[in-house]
User: What shape does this take?
Amino acid sequence: MRVYADNAATTKMSERAKGVMIDYLDKFYGNASSLHSTGQEAAEKLQEARKSIADAIGADPIEIYFTSGGSEADNQAIVSAANIGKRKKKMHIISTAFEHHAVLHTLNKLEKEGFEVTLLDVHENGLVTAQQVADAIREDTCLVTIMYANNEIGTVQPIAEIGEVCRKAGVLFHTDAVQAIGHIPVNVKKDKVDMLSASAHKFKGPKGVGFLYAKRGIILSNIIEGGAQERGKRAGTENIPAIAAMAEALNESIENMEKANEKVTKMRDMLIEGLSKVPHSKVNGDMSAHLPGTVNMCFEGIEGESLLLMLDADGICASSGSACTSGSLDPSHVLLALGIPHEVAHGSLRLSISDENTEEEMKHIIESVPKVVDYLRNMSPVWESLEKGEREHFI
Amino acid sequence: MLYSEKVMDHFRNPRNVGKMDDADGIGEVGNAKCGDIMKMYIKVDNDGIITDVKFNTFGCGSAIATSSIATEMIKGRSIDEALTLSNRAVVEALDGLPAHKIHCSVLAEEAVKAAVKDYYDKNGIEYDKEMFKEVSCEHCE
Assistant: This one.
């Protein structure tokens, strides 16, 4: 049995999105900038997709800019807001400690250019409050950028409340909605967001394509120069088959959302109930404001990479915030931001499921994980010292 | 694949895994904060031969694999031979490790040395302290 439980990393394309993509590769291969019919047919399809995506999130088509994915959209949104701020001598940005690196690394770069960045605490429960944002906003704040839902632990931030605070203060608000779009209802008007990033492959669309929503009137700075595509703000011949497949996947996800979420939430709760029986384990992040399909847990005394490799041998594809899986010595900055100690954060497991998973697969995970945790604990000197009382249990 | 077949073999079927109640030397190296701790137990006979080795490791796949192969490489050898075990030899025996995992092989070498040092200390055997310089981890400080 192969159980794919890493949908927060990427999803398998839906049949409908795949069908559109293949069809478009055949029929609409033209360059949308060409004047001839083949080009203009492609341009028409591009506009259709733009309208369909705009409608899906409550935006206007001219507010949608296609990008290579979420990271590019995050980069462009933040750099654009920073440039707008700089012109008004506003060089303060507010964000959180557990953003995706596409946001954090861009902010680091801006700090080197003289911007000041305030990273809000996300507390033990993985949630930031609108009040924190209100308290952090200054005269010189040019941007608030806070993710819609966290990619590792799945907590959903009070985006509409934060949007309200930002709008009242006249500060631009960007949200990285990569994990949220297609999974929970997102509407840029209701949520009062000025900019929003999305990536198709997180909602059963193709990889390498995403979009940035930027409210009318926001002047974007180019990340990629070289052509008049995307109203001059993002050069490069548009990948129309991928863009159309993204639009299809988004609409399909929204159509199926209610039904899918009911199924996924039930399976997720099965996982939480089953895996919480493992002694000295802990679910990370508040489960009351949460994505339907993501569960993040820590198991004390073990290390995440060996856990993943063992689970893989048992047919389970999952992910971890351990240092070894990140290629650095530090475990996940998300778990550290929640106040989880390094040694416990190393033993984390993220399971992210979709409506394609089955209850039978959940049973397999619930059987397999405790066995693997037990096996690894038996050979762990950390577990030995926890058991002997030489080291204190955190969980 | 991230790892060689040899690494995966030692990870999936670790040799000499376990604890030893009557060990003559025990070495523990690494830091839980960094995500790797290796504990190595050795049994040494009167001729200075390592007759048995066991290990316990908290860490990633390569930490477990390097511990496992290091126990194989010193079992049945003399203490002096065990002290010559280098991290490079461990990496070679595993048909290579990814660059960011080389530190696991360093830990394996240090775990062996720490176990020998403990054996020396327990038995009042004199040694050159230079041989067992403590390696500090900048990351943890």
Q: What stands out?
A: Chain B has one domain: 5-121. The beta strands of chain B are 25-31, 36-44, 50-58. The mean pLDDT of chain B is 92. Residues 102-122 of chain B form the longest helix (21 residues).
